[in-house]
Sequence to fold (1103 residues):
Amino acid sequence: MSEALLTVKNLSVDFHTARGTVHAVKNVSWSVARGETLAILGESGSGKSVSANAVMNLLDIPPAEIVSGEILYDGKDLLKVDYETHRALNGKKIAMIFQDPLGHLNPVYTVGWQIVEMMTAHGRPADAARQRALELITRVGLPEPEQAMRKYPHQFSGGQRQRLMIAMALMLKPDLLIADEPTTALDVTIQAEVLALLKELQAETGMGLVLITHDLGVVAEIADRVVVMNKGEIVETGTVREVYHAPKHPYTRKLIDAAPGKGEITLLDPSAPLLLDAQKLNKTYGSFAALKDVSLTIARGQSLAVVGESGSGKSTLARTLLRLEQADSGQALWKGRDLISMGAKELLGVRREIQMVFQDPTQSLNPRMSVYSLIAEGWDIHKLMPDRRARRARVIELLEQVGLSAEHVDRYPHQFSGGQRQRIAIARALALEPEMIICDEAVSALDVSIQAQVIALLDDLRRRLNISFLFIAHDLGVVRDFADTVIVMKSGEIVERGPTAQIFDAPQHPYTQRLLAANLDPDPDVQAQRRNAPVHA
Amino acid sequence: MADLTLAKPAKELNGRGPSILSMLWRDKLAFISAVVLILIVLFAIFGPMFLGDLATKQNLRGRNFAPFSMERGWALFLGGDSLGRSMLARLVVGAHSTILIAAGTVLAAAIVGAVLGLIAGYSGKTTSQVIMRLADVIMSFPSLLIAVVVLYVLGASIPNMILVLAITRIPIYLRTTRAEVLEVRERMFVQAAVVMGAGHARIILRHILPVVIPTLVTIATLDFAFVMLAESSLSFLGIGVQPPDITWGLMVAQGRPYLNTAWWLAFWPGLMIVITALSLNLLSNWLRIALDPAQRWRLEARKTKNV
Amino acid sequence: MKTDFRALHGLDLPLLEQFGRYVWDLLHLDFGESLRKARPAIDIVLEAYAWTLPLALITMGLVVVSAIVLGSLAAFRVGGFFDRLVSIVSLVGASAPDFWIAIVAIVVFALGLGWVPTSGVGTPLHWVLPIAVLFIRPFGLVVQVVRGSMLTALGSLYVKTARAKGVKNMPLVFVHTLRNGMLPVITVIGDQAAALLNGAVIVETIFGFPGIGKLMIDSILQRDFNVVLAAIMVTALAIFIMNILIDIAYGLLDPRIRH
Fold:
């Protein structure tokens, strides 16, 4: 256990771009032993994947340049061995799985062919490879392995594809498996299953596992040791419990504090007047029912969260209320007038009162418009604030309200970071002084530390301006921190609703219970306890 | 004070006009192409005015006069044609019809194509399908054959040529515009504008057109070269521009019987076509990068490297 | 004499019936007789196609093979020798009119060096210049698309997976990348195969090659309407069939379209 299987020593990698040299990782060292799970934790741009790509010889050189360091495996420095020797190790001794299995599987070949190729590429006979592939497909839990072999990647679900990737990686019983964000694109319940599978397989084979992730919960669930990276450097290393309970570096502390799901639960003010009353909304696409008799109410100043996995209909609900989609039946009374059936003219007035913040601010802000024109566009549309000087002053005021400043007014979206862009999007929503803001996964594209800041901002706006929020999310931690009421959706239906505290402490519906059980807590002890205790019910 | 803090970013971003020119200066090939094209446009505009008479003046003693000799004055420096007319003057005047046809065609095709593309991209399924199937039919048939047949029916004249060439080029602009519109209108920022209450006109003018126009300009530059080649092919075949009008394609055809004895009759006009088309191609390559905000830094970066 | 002519061509029948017969004949590929050669127009057109088809097939075959090989090589080493070669040939193809290339080629290789005959058919040498001139433009376009699409495919995530699996370089390029990279190329090859007829009109005229392009131009200049019509209809049919073949090829290459 103590002897290292793979050691990365003082690795530094630069990327040479036309805009100058970027130090992607600086002096990074880590090692992993047989049977051990090492997590490399970091936010976007931290360089957490770079060393793993160097191990697999997947860096494109140029633009990348390995400035210094060594990668020791089996007594050899992988940075010095020739191409052919390195190629022969890939897949056979060290295998890798990736975040998005659809993009990472070749679309024009059957998955069977691709899994078998793992062995034939290393000179093993094809019929033996087929046998092994069938065994492994069964082992990773896919039904009808014979048929699965003949299908193409696009015919599987995301979770199934990741299982197939895992089967492929294990074909030659590698000593080490590197998993780069293997569950990030998956729903929480599927994520829990895939992580459990990885742990079982590791126990069976005794391989080392390096898991690259941004999610403290994943680290708590699966890792023995963790390496925390920030801006290309390792800021902290240790066992998962040490690092979580006694973080030494301020960045680690910030990261742990930012993890959602620990704040005080907001309570609903029962005396607030009703703003939106939606009854029995239905929407079908062909034969697929996206919304089935969905009813909900929102009071002034209330923050209602809609939780569900992909395909649950939560986004369709938002789009229907905003009239981006037309509901098949049902009504949604906005201050007494039906949103679903109102005419274009009346709708224009309501559009000022309900605003939306989208998931990805990179896409929701027109890249060719300055911050000023982005925020002022709503006034153009609704013919408000004709005075240019007053407009400018108001734009600056709004920017300051969301934590930006006057100097940002004439810049363009690409000059900002992701978190700042989302602040601009929020300022744009506020410009029309809305009574309700619909947030569709508004923080899920952001890094954890920025997520916490944006949530705090939204919460502050809700309290100060008494705006209602319809908050669509899949991350239960974020929901717990922000919402006073929660609706749980599954396959287009509301399966449970209630005050946040009640949903989190005493979930009634089995699906809600499953969702909560699959949600990973950043605290490794809590996570260990959950794992050993049987699920509620 | 407020002005000071705002001055810097404003200068960086609003200095678009001069920065385009200096970016052009930095790419020498593109710069030379632009100069050549300006020169040819000047030929096209002023050529007939100043050299129109010289280009048609016959001189039997200058028949098939060999080039590169100043013996008979600058007019015959590039040689004389089969009727002793000045090749130099004819080449300059020939730019007129060539450029007129190409410009008219590209302008007409681009405008009609872009409007139809906007309609196809923005309207319901049926309208869009009808427009696209029509474009497919035009596209799938060889453009030169269409032109040949239509000119055969309508008769060869410059307006007819513009008409028929424009029809064969419309699908290019139509498809590009529609594809971009479909892509842009699904982007989140357009949805965001809809949620704010923006109407169709605003979405098309403010959000969609600014993305589509640079692409269209780039294609139009490339297409200008293509149309020029098509026009010269038609004129060469004898179903395009008719004498006494002059175009480079027609000049090549007129020189063809004398390949054995006077190669310059067919060579110079061909070379003019090549130079113009080459400049257009090079400029279009540059435009593709210069007009794309995501790629512009490639051109801007050269500056910082040198300084 | 005049009435004979009218009776022969059915011009004495009522107008509507004339039109009805006419459409009926067209549907049976009966375009009447050539006004010049006193033979069925369809026969003349099919004879011409018998010359153009091998010319087009040989040219397109050369274009496809060389564009795929050179385009892939150019994509594999961006900025290298093949990349430069490819971009120069493409630029020439997009800038030089084919009739001019043909004329310069005749002056240099036929009149000057005397390596090949100037025009006509008969020996394999007669085919060299027409094929060479026809080749340049479609090659320039297809090779650019191959290069771009191979670049995209080489940078894709599944190639990264294959590298992580330890797949060797040759299968990486020719098994994992090429089949994906071919998808956009197929469409362009289809477009260019149709556009080849544009070049055929020019090249056949200049080299005195008795194919469909020359026939079209000759018939138009001689106002032989039936032959022109027959040529158009047969060409349309040929393009229609080719588009179907392209769609089938697409489905064979990409399982996502099949399902």
Observations:
- Residues 1-18, 301-307 of chain B have pLDDT under 50 and may be disordered.
- Chain B touches chain C through 36 residues (CB under 8 Å).
- The domain at 32-306 of chain B is CATH 1.10.3720.10 (MetI-like fold).
